[in-house]
Amino acid sequence: MPGQKISLKSLLALIVVLIVLIGLFGYLNARGEKLAEGTIILKAGKQVIGEITIEDVEKLPAVNKKVVINSTSGLSKHKFTGTPLAEVFNHFDPQIVKQYERVITRGVDNYVSGVNMEEVLEKNNVLLVYADNGEPLKSKTGTSGTMRIIILNDLYGQRFTNYLVEIELE
Ligand SMILES: Nc1nc2c(c(=O)[nH]1)N[C@H]1C(S)=C(S)[C@@H](COP(=O)(O)O)O[C@H]1N2
Ligand SMILES: [Mo]
Fold this sequence. Notes:
The chain contains five helices and ten strands; from the N terminus they run H-E-E-H-E-E-H-H-E-E-H-E-E-E-E. By secondary structure, it is α+β, with helices and mostly antiparallel strands. It has one domain: Alpha-Beta Complex (Sulfite Oxidase, Chain A, domain 2). A five-stranded mixed β-sheet has the order 2-1-10-5-6. Strands 3, 4, 7, 8 and 9 form a five-stranded antiparallel β-sheet that branches. A hairpin with a 4-residue loop joins strand 5 and strand 6. Bound molecules: the ligand Nc1nc2c(c(=O)[nH]1)N[C@H]1C(S)=C(S)[C@@H](COP(=O)(O)O)O[C@H]1N2 and molybdenum atom (MO). The site of the ligand Nc1nc2c(c(=O)[nH]1)N[C@H]1C(S)=C(S)[C@@H](COP(=O)(O)O)O[C@H]1N2 has 12 residues, from strand 3.
């Protein structure tokens, strides 16, 4: 049957289409996995909607807070500098705090935690910090700056995501 024969031309066209698709998926995938401390990928669900760098956050209103973190390994004292997470969202898009209910935070070590948007909207509660005692926060490998979430109303440091690389809105 002649209809069953595939011409060389259409076979080549098919191969070209497949190669382009593989390249495109590879590119999109590589983009999605670019997780480096000092930059936070902002996602709405699975979709990337932007990036926030330490330099961006330093331009927002600064807040200094003395915090004692209570953990199973004991107490650690800090003098954090950061900005309310709500300021970061509002700077990005004022609709964010109205449109989403949950904020899921992920560290470079894949530590995942979260806060509700109501908590983010409370005054002096959820901060995105980048310095301690006037020094930049050290990344997991100690080589560069990093950011972390702190929650002033929490009794324990469990939800204080260190080495923050991703924020997902839900
Ligand atoms: N990325 C990341 N953040 C994290 C953790 C972690 O393992 N990885 N541990 C949490 C816990 S259980 C506590 S008590 C605090 C400890 O904060 P510290 O490391 O500044 O003492 O960080 C929290 N944030
Ligand atoms: Mo902890």
